[in-house]
Design brief:
alpha+beta; Immunoglobulin-like; 2 domains; 19% helix
Amino acid sequence: MTRTSILLVLALCASVKCLLGDFVTAKLGESVKLSASRSCTGDEKFTLIKRLKDDSPLTVALRVDGVWEPGLNYTSRISHHSVFGVVLSRLNINDNGLYEFTCGGEIVTLIQLEIFRATPVSVSEGGTVELPCYYYTAGELVKSVRWERNGSLVIEMDRASREIRYGTGFEGKGSVSANWYLEGNLSLTLKRAQLEDTGDYLCYIQQDEDAKRRRGHPAAATLTVSKRHPDPDHVCPKDEEKKGMESWSIVAITVFLTLVIVGPSAFVLGWWLKSCR
């Protein structure tokens, strides 16, 4: 299938998912699962290829007797996952691109794989943190900005309507500058960070009408939220009050024992001395 044909198919497709399937994102150096929407039957040749920039195909894997075998350039990085697909490991930047599952020479599934390198960011539990992301928006037809965490929505802002959509748990704590389009600053601010906010965050802009996504720069951040430990120098007012009450209790008990024990003893001693005279 030529590049022109692929572009034509995509242009006629109202939704990227109808033929391309979901965009697949994966972190540099890790692994990703690539699966076809259906399997080949009979003796048809089932192949996974990567479409290079010059439109030439590069064989990634070939299914032989029900088992996926790696292509020449993937001998140590492809492993069988199921009759539908494989796992590609130790991802590098050249793994970015368009992948085609073909059955008897006909395309079954197209997958757009995006490899990202994440910037490490850390924050203490309950703190505020900014995940940086920028994009040259001047003169660009941009529909929205979108942040995802581990593949799920964090926040999406529509440029024209100014409508904001939040993912579960991020309403009121995640925000992007209202001037993101004018300034090209797509950075995400997270308030009151919780341990469960830890994960990989990806930043995109959505092009108008054509459903294309473009990554910001840097495209991703790996957020680590660490548990907050009590400050040993910080004294809680309630603890101070408790200590004060304990001190007064000790004083009161001491006075009581003095009156009960020492007082009568002194009286008896004085009476005895007086009687001895």
